[in-house]
Amino acid sequence: MTGANSRDRELRERAEAVIPGGMYGHQSVALLPDDYPQFFARGEGAHLWDVDGRRYLDLMCAYGPNLFGYANPEIDAAYVRQLGLGDTLTGPTPLMVELAEALVGMVGHADWAMFCKNGTDATSMALVVARAHTRRKTVVRAKGAYHGAAAWCTPRPAGVVDSDRAHQLFCDYNDVASLEAAVAQAGDDLACIFAAPFRHDAFVDQADPDPAYARRARELCDATGALLVVDEVRAGFRLTRDVSWSRIGVQPDLSSWGKCLANGHALSALLGGDKARAAAASVYVTGSFWYEAAPMAAALETLRLIRETDYLERITALGARLRDGLAERAAAAGFGFRQTGPATMPLFLFDEDPDLRKGFCFASEMLARGVYVHPWHNMFLCAAMTEADIEAALDAAEGAFGALKRQAGGLPPVDKLAFLSAGAR
Ligand code: PMP
Question: What is the structure's pLDDT at 424?
Fold first, then answer.
């Protein structure tokens, strides 16, 4: 094969033969514009290189794990040093205790930590701990909120049976009345309320948590003896250095963490307060790789950078600059362009774009100009980004809005997302 993305195409063809569907999960490009690369050769700092050698400023940050830059020298040195000493051993290393102490010292509500690998491990463990603590079954959570890909929470129905989804009731995020109704329906069987730190669902505008909703969730848990769980897997350490709802004065009983905890190395965690300690000690949860020492060394270094640097202030300022600059350029080009969510985790949607054809075109035009954006999922800023990177993204956006304007009348429909027009949105 020849052409600008021939290596990627060749790998996709080979993948079709040996990987079901060619790719699976959130990193499949099946729901992205056709020109998006599936395979990458390397990442460094804020940039990615695809297998055909093209370099991108990466506004996805690996869907969150990249907080301090790909191949961060300090974090990866700690990781490699520990690899030389031992990683998966017959028992954990002292790093596990140090890491639990570090997290308990940083996250206000936490008195203990348990470690696992993926966000889904941590959210599923939260559910098990809440059920063990209350000896009840029902979880209340918001419709459309993602908490992982285990049978109890995967957004796709294939392979899931009704009993996997039993004992769950749904409310609308930020809607106190619907939260109260779901809790009332749970009656005396409420084990926990699950909450995202803000509404970060795909395909729709993001929303800050309404403090009244967060406070009501806390009160309802206190009144019923259920546990409040905040799922920090995606937003953790991009809003604050503590659990996100501490900013609005609400402390959960449990919080699940993952993604950026070890800056891309495999580690997630469940943190909890003393109230849930006995239940957490009672459940049997484990995994062959959950005690790996090298990701814990990386996490200790990541947490040190979180505590000792101004990364959060910098990415917040960069996110604000990006947002303001994009708003100016979108307005100049005459587009209704909605940027929602925190500045460090933006999501872009165009007005009057039900099948996202404008969003897909804009994303493709950004990609062609060296900036990897996502047309329907929130993005992430990282501390390796610079003001020059943001200026480059804004220059790319000026070109992309212009190109979109020229094509706007004749954009092809996006058939990959037909399920959106079918009312799933
Ligand atoms: N919770 C939230 C809020 C998430 O965003 C994710 C992953 N996108 C998960 C849980 C599951 O994490 P993982 O993919 O690491 O299992």
Answer: 47
